[in-house]
Design goal:
The protein is mostly helical. The protein has 10 helices and 2 strands; from the N terminus they run αααββααααααα. It has 2 domains: 8-86, Arc Repressor Mutant, subunit A (Orthogonal Bundle); 94-243, GntR ligand-binding domain-like (Four Helix Bundle (Hemerythrin (Met), subunit A)), CATH 1.20.120. Strands 1-2 form a two-stranded antiparallel ribbon. Helix 5 runs antiparallel to helix 6, helix 5 (130-143) packs antiparallel against helix 9 (198-213) and helix 6 packs antiparallel against helix 7.
Length: 244
C-alpha cells in the first residue's frame, strides 16, 4: 500500500512540478504518472491532501482542482467519509474490456463530445456574429502554422472549439467546452499522438466554419458530427492497436 517504502509515489521531493503549464495540470500529470507506473494501483487510497500539498509544493485549491479533473477523467473516485481512491477500470461494454483506465476515460470523453459538438455547431450557425466568424477564421489561419507538435495542435483545437462555443452566446456551452478541453489537455499526448491526419483535422474545422458562415444549421451539425466521429473511431482503433 501507499505507506510501504518500496512504493515510489510518496518520494516526490526530488521531482517538484515543472514550470510552464497551469499548476493543477502539472499535479494531474504527476498523479497520472503514479497510476501508469504502478505506484498507485486500482483501489489504492490517495495520500492525504496535506501530504500531497507538501510533496508537490502546491496550494489546496490547486490540488482540489487537479482532483476534480482526475475524477472527471474517471481516474479517481471520491467516497464520502473514506477519501479518494484510484478507480478500477469499468468493463461494461465488450469492446472496452481490458482497455486501461486512462484510455477508457479518453474514449468516454469523446463519446460525450459526439453529442455535444454537433449541438454547439448548430447553435453557432444560428447565432454567430460577424466578429465571431472573424475569430473562427483567424483561428483556422493560425492553426495552419501550429500542426507540427501535439501540444500545438491541442491548443489550436481548443481555440477553434472555444470560438465555436462562444459563437453560441450561451455561457453553459462555453463552460462545458472549457471543461472538456481541460480534460483533453490533460491527456493530449495520448489523443494527439494518435491523430496523425493533420490535414483532415484542419479541413474539418474549415468545413464547420463554412457551414456556419452560410448559416446552414443542418450542415454545421453534420460537419461537426463527422469530425468527432472520425476522431472517436481513430482513437478507438489506435488504442486497440496498442493493446495487440
Amino acid at each position: 500500500m501507499l505507506g510501504e517504502p518500496e512504493r515510489g509515489f510518496i518520494h516526490m521531493n526530488d521531482s517538484r512540478l515543472e514550470r510552464g503549464a497551469r499548476i493543477y495540470e502539472r499535479v494531474v500529470e504527476k498523479l497520472k504518472h503514479s497510476i501508469a507506473s504502478g505506484d498507485l494501483l486500482p483501489g489504492d487510497p490517495l495520500p492525504s491532501e496535506r501530504r500531497l500539498m507538501e510533496d508537490f509544493g502546491v496550494s489546496r485549491s490547486s490540488l482540489r482542482e487537479a482532483f476534480r479533473v482526475m475524477e472527471l477523467l474517471g481516474l479517481i473516485e471520491s467516497i464520502p467519509g473514506k477519501g479518494r481512491f484510484v478507480r478500477h477500470a469499468g468493463s461494461g461494454e465488450d469492446d472496452k474490456e481490458n482497455i486501461k483506465l486512462e484510455d477508457s476515460a479518453v474514449l468516454e470523453l469523446m463519446e460525450a463530445r459526439r453529442t455535444l459538438d454537433p449541438a454547439i455547431a448548430a447553435e453557432s450557425a444560428m447565432r454567430a456574429t460577424p466578429s465571431d466568424l472573424t475569430k473562427m477564421l483567424r483561428v483556422i489561419t493560425e492553426t495552419e502554422k501550429r500542426l507540427n507538435t501535439p501540444s500545438q495542435r491541442a491548443q489550436a483545437d481548443f481555440d477553434f472549439h472555444l470560438a465555436l462555443a462562444e459563437a453560441t452566446h450561451n455561457f453553459v456551452f462555453v463552460n462545458i467546452t472549457r471543461m472538456n478541453f481541460d480534460l483533453i489537455q490533460a491527456t493530449h499526448d495520448k489523443i494527439y499522438g494518435l491523430l496523425e491526419d493533420k490535414e483532415a483535422f484542419l479541413q474539418e474545422h474549415r468545413s464547420m466554419y463554412e457551414a456556419i458562415l452560410d448559416r446552414n444549421v443542418e450542415l454545421a451539425r453534420d460537419m461537426a458530427s463527422r469530425h468527432i466521429d472520425r476522431i472517436y473511431k481513430t482513437l478507438h482503433q489506435g488504442i486497440a492497436a496498442q493493446r495487440l
